[in-house]
Structures are given as structure tokens and as C-alpha cells.
């Protein structure tokens, strides 16, 4: 009865909130994002990573996009429905996601053998150690999901978003909807790949490559032999999902269901909810070890046991899962992998709760709801395991130390998590993956939403400590504020500690934090948390501009435009525009098109010894996060 009562309360709050300062601010920001003159969307109605083109972070160009942006858009439209009573844009956003973000290469998985999911290749420490030699002597486990999913949906294809897109086809691969390269003049967002060479491969050291490589570009073997060493190569496709984005899309669909039901419009979103449930079914690939090896105390690739059934599931939302195979049907092979590493920042208890308990989001596969129920419990346990005495959450855990089932240091064996090892910077080290405060705000927000819906006392306990930490570390002066920006970590669980290495103004992180505080306050009755949420939202509003909200950012890291990109000696290839890839390659050298950007002169002057350039960016996720924070506060408190 407790769960049902909370759901009714949530619906009542939404139904009663029709107008107010903060819902008005949501609509003001929503209209700026949706204004076609402001540049947030492409001609195909695909959300860009940012309005500005010259920006290098996880994507290396502003008019690329990510599955993250798609998921934020779905959430934005769900909240628009809650406030305005029109859920048609929510359905449209999901349809665009389905059209452009989910690969459409037909029959590409028909040769997949669940008893042999993939051939092992160790992850290495530095890009200069690649390509990595595949090793068929390492035993891999059995994929327990493939047959169940095929029986449920009548298809071998995956219903998961690839994570990275060249929306304007700047690179020129032309992998539209995941098809093989049609070249620089292809119309529509082009899929592409990045990051495949270990934890020190920052964006500045990447070699972008097509998702479907038929040797049209690159070298003799396309781009394949830069990453994997094999006896022979064949044209192939490869896609990677960022599971936190797929989970966010499911989370947004959960709220769309709650809000539409409150307004008597559940039937208007029911078909989209079925699609979200399907995505949640395939999202279970994020719950498994990379090579489906048995979870726990895995110190050696050769001796670690291959998994059978679900004993290769860690039940946490991992960093990625991927799939691929031969483009030429005569070769008849394909593969799927998970990931042994899980970052706390990717966990989504509300999505797990919804997939386990919400009838409108119940996946078709017979074991899916049980898997997500187990995942919900495991995620909450991970938050407990990683929480510092200060209140912040440390990095994550892995079943495969160094990405190759290596022997971890002895101190990491003293207190494992289901036999998995603590890692303060899971997966990426340049920069460390848990240095950015945003991971704290994003994940705590999901935990707070779950707490608001369920009243779970474990979630309340975790949040009360986190909220106390954030409250202590957030300061205001006049019209501005300071929050943690970058974090440092010492020790191992249960004695891990956080320090704040820098403070700053990140409007997106502030919005996520305000939303966390609002959901926590609405359920717990904590008036101080509510007051801080309101104060943050009002402080953010000071930074309003014509496109949304912005603050100047100095980018001293842009010295790395000249950074060397490792290419093995003797390897030579070309990009569609003619840029040469060889051992003298640099970041800008293989992206010469950047020199035509209207803001390039600012970077060029800096590279020639000038001042650090500053930019005011309008990232899609940040602008949407701000709108959602205003809307959530307005719906929760009707002020």
C-alpha cells in the first residue's frame, strides 16, 4: 500500500500544479530551446550537443550529438506535457530517437551465437600499446539474454541507441542510420565511433572512425587494425550504447506515464511507453560482465570462469555495452559485449524501479522484471558501499581490473563489492571519470526521484548525507554562487574520502542539484533543502541570455588541439576530406575542417601564445536540465 499511496500523491501534486513562477520559467526556457532560430536542433529535428560548433569534450564538435541529448529531449517533452497537457511532442521526440539513434542495419545480428558472444581482446593502459591482439584461448561465457529477446520481439536486432552521431556529417563518413559509408554528401545524421584505446585515450587522443567500416576510408583495412590485431580483417559494423542515456529515456517515459495518467491522457502515450519498455529490455545488456564471465574474484583472464545463466550479471548499470559483426553476409559472424566496470554516476534506481514494477513499462521478456528488481536492490547497495563519511559517492566497481581481468593491488581485495573491486576512476583516467561534480548531481537526482516515488528509507538515508554535504559546500554572494566543480579521492571503501579541489559555476550541475534537493524536500519535508533548491534556481535565473542560460568558460585545455595522436609507425590512411592519418597525426591535423569554424581564430591565437580563450556554451543537456529543474520545482511545490 505504501508504494501505491506515494504514486497517488505524485499524481495529485502534478494535477494540482497549473501555474506559477517556476513552471513559467520552464515554459520560457522550453520555448527558447524549441525556437528554430536558436540552433538547438538540426534540419532533421535532431538535438545538437550544443548550439556552438567549436567545443571539445566527450563529443569533439558541437554539431555532433549523443544518446544523452536524445534522452534529455524525451524528458523535456514529458514535462511539457505535465505542465501544458499536451504529450504529442513526447511521442515525437521518441519517434525521432527511434528513427535516427537506433541502428537500422537489417539482418546484422542474424549470425549471432549466444554461446560464443565475442572473442576476447585485452584493454591496454595507453593508446600507444594498441592495436590489442585478440585471444581466442580465453574462455567467454554464455549470453543468457539473446534467445529470450529474440523470442519476445521476433528479431535479432538490438533496440538500443548508439551513443555518438555526426549530425551534420562533418567527418563525411555518411553512416546514416548505421548503414555503411555513403560519403561526405549523405543527407542525415551520420553514426560514428570514438574511444577504443584504453583509459588514457582522452578525446584529444582519439581516432574517429565509422560505425560501419567497409574500407572506403582509413587505411588498407579501414580503421580496424588501429584497434585490434588479428590474422585477417573483414568489413564490419560496430555500435556502442551509453546505458545511462537509455536508462534516462526510460526514466522520462515513467514520468510521462505518471503525468499523462494524472491528466486522463494515458492512452496518448501508451504506444511510446511500450517502446520504452522494449528499450529497457535490451538495456539489460548493461547488467553483465564484458565477456559474460562469472562475477566476483576474477584475477586472471585465463582462469576466471565463463558464466552460465545469470551468474555473469553484476546487475549494475555499466559504462557501455556494444554489438557488431561482419558487413559481408558470407562471413556470417557477429558479437555482443557488456562491461565489467560500473560507475555510480550511471546508476538509475528510478528506471530500475519502473521496469520492475510499472505495468505500462513492463518488458516482454519473462525474466526482465525480475532482473530489474535485482538491479534496483544492487544499485542501492552500491550507493551504500561507495558513500563517503562526508556524503559524496566514490567512483565505482569492476569485475575486470584494468579491463583485462588483471590482479588488483592487495588493498583492493580487503573489502570487495560482490567480489568486484573498487575503482576511484572507472574506465577513464584522462580526466579521471569521477573528478567532475556533475556525476554526483546527476546520479543523486535519480536517487532522489526514486525516493520521492517510493519513500524507500535506504534512499532517504543516503540522500540525507549527500544533501548535508552539498549544502555545506554551496555558497552565495550577491547574485552569484559557488559549488563544487572538481573532486579528489583518497582511501578505499569503507574508508574512502572526498575533497573538493575546485569550486565554480556550472549551471547544468546547479540545476541537477536543485532538482535533487527539490525531490528530496518534497518527500522528506526538509525545509532547508527546499530553500536551497529555490535559492539555486533563482541564482541560475540571473544568467539568462537570448539563447537560454550561459556563463563564460575559460578553456586552457584547448592547447591540446595540437596534441599528438598515436598512430603506429608505417600506418597510413585518409579521412573523406583527405586529411592524412599517420604517425605525425595531431588532433587538429586529422580535423582540418575545424580551421573553418567562425571561432577558430580565438583558439589559433591561444596556440600562438595568446590569452586563454573564453566561450559561452549552450549545451543541450545543460539547457534542458535547467528547464527541467524549474519545472520539477514548480510541479512539486506549485509556487
Question: What's a quick, concise take on this entry?
Answer:
This protein is an alpha+beta fold and 639 residues long.
Quickly give the structural class.
alpha+beta
Number of helices: 15
Largest sheet: 4 strands, antiparallel
Distance between the termini: 29 Å
> What number is the mean pLDDT?
95
- CATH topology tier name of the largest domain: Glycosyltransferase
Indicate the overall shape: globular
What is the number of domains?
2
Low-confidence stretches: 1-17
Would you report the number of β strands?
A: 20
Radius of gyration: 23 Å
The strand line-up of the biggest sheet is 1-3-4-5
> Helical residue percent?
25-40%
Strand content: 5-15%
Q: In the CATH classification, which architecture of the largest domain applies?
A: Alpha/alpha barrel
Task: State the name of the first-level CATH class of the largest domain.
Answer: Mainly Alpha
General description of the model:
The protein is of the alpha+beta class. It folds into 2 domains: 570 residues, Glycosyltransferase (Alpha/alpha barrel); 59 residues, Endo-1,4-beta-glucanase f, domain 3 (Irregular). 36% of the residues lie in helices and 12% in strands. It contains 15 helices and 20 strands. A 4-stranded antiparallel sheet has the order 1-3-4-5.
